[in-house]
Amino acid sequence: MSATELLAPARVGRGLYAITPGLDDTAELVALVDSVLAGGAAMLQYRNKHASAGLRQIQATALAERCRRAGVPLIINDDPRLASAVGADGVHLGRDDGSVAEARAILRGGIVGVSCYDDFTLAERAVAAGADYIAFGSFFPSGTKPGAARAGLELLSRATTLRPRPAVVAIGGITPGNAGELVDAGCDLLAVIQSLFGAPDPAAVANDFRRLYDHA
Predict the structure, then answer these.
(1) Considering only CA atoms, which of 132, 151, 131, 133 is closest in space to residue 141?
(2) For residues 29 and 39, what is the distance between their CA atoms, to the nearest angstrom?
(3) pTM (2 decimals)?
(4) For residues 16 and 36, is the Cβ–Cβ distance under 8 A?
(5) Residues noted as catalytic
(6) Domain range annotation of the chain
(7) pLDDT digit string (tens) for 23-64?
(8) Of 107, 157, 169, 182, which sits 20 to 30 A from 137 (CA to CA)?
(9) With respect to CATH, is domain 3-211 assigned 3.20.20.370?
């Protein structure tokens, strides 16, 4: 495998991709993020669908500072302009969040990830457009998106054959107990919200996810 094929996975890392819950209390959010960064998260996504633009700016700025200190990439959900404004490392795009090219025009050199749900054709298009990572899910029942389509493990292994090789992300109902089969199928990053941020000890759970990649 060439260095070019390894570029995207190497750029975003492997392990836990922590996605923040939608909290209005910025101090509480920052404290939780500090815990998962200490536990070994490989990447963090700021996601707050219901916050005002002003609160999103405040929270994203605070998390950008924390992530820089920890040496962990910060990704902003849906909003490349906010990502650029706070100096984040990249943006995550859903179905209705614009194109990879549009995001790249705003975030020159930034990481761009794309939700592909249960659709391999979307993944092929995203990689052809230059996405650094592609995300599939939901793999398990999810409280965050209870009506989400279910994705099969074969999507993960098929995605590792795409060229240039993207990083491959799994999301949806993932816990340390069920994540092993996703790692074995070729998942580079485990995107987690509830089982991480809803745990009594988020740092310990983050460490449990990190350890899944120790010998992967």
Answers:
(1) 151
(2) 15
(3) 0.94
(4) yes
(5) 47, 115, 145
(6) 3-211
(7) 999 999 999 999 999 999 999 999 999 999 999 999 999 999
(8) 107
(9) no
